[in-house]
Amino acid sequence: MKYALAFASLPLFILPAFSSVMTLSYDTVYDDGATSLDRVACSNGNNGLVTRGYTTFASLPSYPYICGIEFVKGWNSPNCGTCYNVTYGNPGEKKTFSILAVDTDPNGMNIGENVMNKMTNGNAVEYGTVEADVEQVAESYCGL
């Protein structure tokens, strides 16, 4: 009986924290690697990225794949540094990128224009926003 309980709880550790469709927008602020992490919600504090030794966007191992996301509710959020696999495109042409949460966004996920262009084959400005599949994954996907 003990073994059955142990195996029954195993899938909880394998399943992602969440998976859903989310609206992606872009902001060119995430394209400037010299931007200090002090300008975003995931700066300092116990959950901050500065606390882990990073200072600018470009110092992050996942740069330029960084974002603001609705799950980061504000400064020092426990969701700072979470990583998400974002999949966009038509069947047979889907692209997946691992993107690190560094900031908040009240409307879904906000990424750099350059990353949005990679996802949409250069159509970031034309599309403005897109719907993408977003799945939380281990921080290691984003190099942390």
Describe this structure in words.
This protein has 144 residues and is an alpha/beta fold. It has a single domain (18-142), classed as Barwin-like endoglucanases (Beta Barrel), CATH 2.40.40.10. 17% of the residues lie in helices and 27% in strands. It has three helices and six strands; from the N terminus they run αβββββααβ. It has a six-stranded mixed β-barrel with strand order 1-5-2-4-3-6. A hairpin with a 6-residue loop joins β3 and β4 (95-104). It is globular, with a radius of gyration of 16 Å. The chain starts with a helix and ends in a 7-residue tail after the last strand.
Using only CA atoms, what is the Rg?
A: 16 Å
Main sheet record: 6 strands, mixed, barrel
- Order the strands across the largest sheet as they lie in space: 1-5-2-4-3-6
- Label the CATH architecture: Beta Barrel
Global mean pLDDT: 90
Structural category: alpha/beta
- Overall helicity: 10-25%
Number of helical stretches of at least 4 residues: 3
Number of strands: 6
CATH superfamily: RlpA-like domain
pLDDT under 50 segments (min length 5)?
A: 1-16
Query: Judging from the principal axes of the Cα atoms, what is the shape?
Result: globular
Question: How large a portion of the residues is in β-strands, by DSSP E?
Answer: 25-35%
Helix and strand pattern: HEEEEEHHE
The CATH topology label is Barwin-like endoglucanases
Distance between the termini: 38 Å
